[in-house]
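Hi support team,

I submitted a single chain yesterday and got back a structure, but I'm not sure I'm reading the token output correctly. Could someone confirm the output below corresponds to the sequence I sent? I've pasted both exactly as they appear in my results page.

Thanks,
R.
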Amino acid sequence: LEEICDVFPSPIIHMGGDEVSKIGECSDCAKLKSEIGKLGIYLRYYQKINDILKAKGKKLGLWGDMILQLCDGSPFWVGREIEQEFVEKNLELLYALRDNLIVYDWWYTGVSKLSLDFFRKHGIKTIAATSTMGCYCSCLNPEQFINSYNFYEYAQDIDTYGVLCTDWINHLGYHAEH
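Hi R., thanks for writing in. Yes, this is the structure output for that exact sequence:
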């Protein structure tokens, strides 16, 4: 990680961190999991990463989906395990990161004002990100364009850190020209 920081001049190093499912399942993590939960283990791990990045003058970039466990009503976490008993402890761990954290709030279908508002409320710098969904069609989906436009418009209205458009490419190697 230190070598990556030395090679790349970007002020943000994006570490991914999305859709993590195998947290706290080993016997070594059992005690910590009982104290702060799976999300706590996740946040504590990224605190270690953050310390390295911060020492190198870099900000930590993460996808926002895991953090949205802390957002009541988040559509991402419908039907998934949420550890309510650890919310306060996990918010404290999140707050310990926030001065050096950039969250990429990414949605398949565009607008989620709820998540942007959540990150803003908790003082987290956010980049609103959505996809053109190239994996489903060979051209830009007009509905997705409208969703992206609305998401970015709202992001601008609430003064997010920026916006990002991605394309989720299918196994056929679809190449986006839009």
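A quick pointer for reading it: The two ends are 33 Å apart (CA to CA). Let us know if anything else looks off.

Best,
Support desk
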